[in-house]
Amino acid sequence: MASCAYSLRALVASCFGGTILAGVVTALGRVVLIVQRIWVIASALARAFEANGAHVLLAANPRSGLALADHPRLSAAVLNGWSRELCRQLEVRGIPFLLYTGRDQIDDECVEAPIVRKPASPADVVHRVERLLI
User: For residue 125, what are the domain limits?
Assistant: First the structure.
């Protein structure tokens, strides 16, 4: 019976854009928006998410991020350069996001979002996003 329940959970998760492996939700098949102005960091994050099976949307600034935030399959976002409008749009859509930043002060509109401090590794950022998707 447990294997049937597991199979059903895995099937449901995969239909909704993720995979459950031993009770853990992965980035496999998810669409993740990364808003990061520093290309080297954006590229490293994108490679880490893609290595975990995610599809990545890259934006160099919040304005570009806003244009991508309405993607119909968007599952999560990693923001560095954020704006109140982008945070609100993600929250209205129910899209979980975190802030990946080295800044000490956070915009009060995004204050509820989890913060991952730079220089956390791209793998750590992927892990934190996967935890948001549970």
Answer: 27-132
- In the three-class reduction of DSSP (H, G, I as helix; E, B as strand; rest coil), residue 41 is classed as helix
Task: Report the domain count for the chain.
Answer: 1
Say if 15 falls within a structural domain: no
- How long, in residues, is the chain? 134
Q: What is the CATH number of the domain that holds 51?
A: 3.40.50.2300
Task: Report cis status (omega within 30 of 0) of the bond before 119.
Answer: yes
Burial class (CB in 10 A: 0-12, 13-18, 19+), 108: exposed
| pTM value surpassing 0.90 | no
Cβ–Cβ contacts within 10 Å for residue 80, how many?
A: 22
User: Which tokens belong to 130?
Assistant: 């996967």
Q: Are strands 74-79 and 115-117 parallel, antiparallel or unpaired?
A: unpaired
* Residue 29: pLDDT band with limits 50, 70, 90: confident
First to last CA, the chain: 23
Could you read off the pLDDT of 81-92 as tens digits, one per residue? 667 889 889 999
- Residue 57 falls within a domain, yes or no? yes
CA gap 20, 34 in Å, rounded: 23
